[in-house]
# Entry
Amino acid sequence: MIIPIPQVLTTEQVREARTLLDAAEWIDGKVTAGHQSARVKHNQQIPEDSPAAQKLGDMILAALERNPRFISAALPLKVFPPLFNRYSGGQSFGLHVDNAVRLVRGTPQRVRTDLSATLFLSEPTDYEGGELVIEDTYGAHAVKLPAGHMVLYPASSLHKVNAVTRGARTASFFWIQSMVREDAQRALLFDMDTAIQRLAQDMADHPAVIQLTGVYHNLLRTWAET
# Structure
């Protein structure tokens, strides 16, 4: 599933992020690319150990912990520390698939990349091109969201970033290891959780709310890895 997560960061947080990123050191984005991805990756990144990256990464992780839609959709077990990239002057990232496992720099911790996330930090009017294009069984889907909004999608998906032909596209990207490994199971749980919340709003005292909530948690108990 491709799931938009609106307003992960506030307008003020986006402004703070842009100020820090504009003043940060940028390096060749190939530094975090695998062998195959490096052939088609043309962008810039902030080093993983950059103070700006660490400060903004902590801000994003704290925001995600408070975001019910993200928790419901991702069922996160581990979140890779957010990274930051920038595309400008015709830069792009060709069709690729993300590495299955990521090592957290400076630690022995490994994160299985069940889900990929892109958090947009530039407004769509700031640049031309730069769409994140995600392929699934229903075709290719172009994503270009307002600053502070995020998209979540299976890391197993083929995807690319179209060339930025005007301005600059700045974003954060990272991966999530979910408690539920299978995308189809996560999708079912997300749809069920969404339906339960809507039902609870309309008919909070209906016995079906408790019954369906029990079904949800029993499925999660069956599929979850902790």
Observations:
- Residues 192 and 216 are 7 Å apart (CA to CA).
